[in-house]
Amino acid sequence: GIQNAYRLFYGCNAATNINMTQTPNLEDGRGIFRDCKNLVQVTFSGSPKCVNYSTIFAHCENLERLPMFDTSGCIYANSFANYCYRLTYIPSYDWGKVTEATSMFVNDGALLYCPALNMPELLNGAAMFKDCTQIQTIGHINAPKLISTINMLQRCYQLSSFSITTTNALKTTYNMFFNCAHLRALNAFDTSGVDDAHHMFFGCGLSSLDAGFVFPELVNGESMFESCGYSAAPFPLIHFPRLTNAKNMFKFCRFARFDANQSFATVSNGESMFESFAYGSVTFVTVPNFNFAVLTTCKDMWKNNGYINDLSALDEYNRLKLLPTINDHSGCFTDCG
């Protein structure tokens, strides 16, 4: 039987139905049906010997459903079925050996449902569901070895809840939930090893942030919670002992309460950090100290927090000006008080 089917039907735009079932010895399944833009139905058996199914259905723009086949030997599933505009659900495949799943279902614009994913060997899940703008349900993802979730759920506008199992192996989570506008419920997962989470929750619709989240290694938190949250939700006390970049971190953040016991002693870049917090609502009446000690810029830091009283703003402004590290404090309290 065939062992290498690399791009076997690549770009066969005339094909609407393909039957490929005699593949017990298949080892390389990369791009077999890639760019078959008019393909509607596939019958395919796969093989436990096949380690690579990357791009197998990529850009099959009219494929209505994915065939159920043997994925038990698969290690590489990058771009597995991305840009498949008519898919509405994903079958329950065996992903037990997969280590790479980047861009797995990117831009599957009609996708509504994905079952639970047991991926005990997964290392890279970057952009797995990026731009799946209609997806509503993703079952629990078990990925204890996962290192990267960059852009994983970016612009999954309709996703309302999500859960994942990770460990301290996870290092980069930036843009993970970027513009998940309807994401209300999110259970804490292990972020104890994460050092870069910029824009992680940007534009999220969280009704609350689980207090179980910890970020002891976080260095880059730029825009991490920008435009995030709902007006009734408090922001829990989370410590960021290594954070240096907090630019825009809470800008336009919609959380109604913020714990004044937070410490940002390691932050150097505080530009627009709290600008228009809760759209300038009554959240901040006075300016907490927050233990800033090494700031180099607080430009526009508290801009447009209209309920901050003049006296507290003046006291903090004078304190910040005395920091020897500060080189830019312009606009720090513009439109406050």
Characterization of this structure:
The protein is 4% helix and 8% strand. By secondary structure, it is low in regular secondary structure. The chain is built from one helix and eleven strands. The protein has one helix at residues 310-321, and strands at 17-20, 41-44, 113-114, 117-118, 137-138, 141-142, 161-162, 164-165, 185-186, 234-235, 257-258. The strands form five sheets. A three-stranded parallel sheet has the order 4-6-8, with no helix packed on it. A two-stranded parallel ribbon has the order 1-2.
The fraction of residues assigned to DSSP E strands is: 5-15%
Mean pLDDT: 94
Largest sheet: 3 strands, parallel
Sheet/helix structural class: little secondary structure
Q: Find the count of extended strands (DSSP E, 2+ residues).
A: 11
The gyration radius over C-alpha positions equals: 24 Å
The H/E string reads EEEEEEEEEEEH
* Helix count from the secondary structure assignment: 1
Q: Going across the biggest sheet, name each strand in turn.
A: 4-6-8
> Helix share of residues?
under 10%
Low-confidence stretches: none
Report how far apart the termini are.
77 Å
Q: What form results from the Cα inertia axes?
A: elongated
Reconstruct the topology from this structure:
Elements: E1 17-20, E2 41-44, E3 113-114, E4 117-118, E5 137-138, E6 141-142, E7 161-162, E8 164-165, E9 185-186, E10 234-235, E11 257-258, H1 310-321
Parallel strand pairs: 1-2, 3-5, 4-6, 6-8, 7-9, 10-11
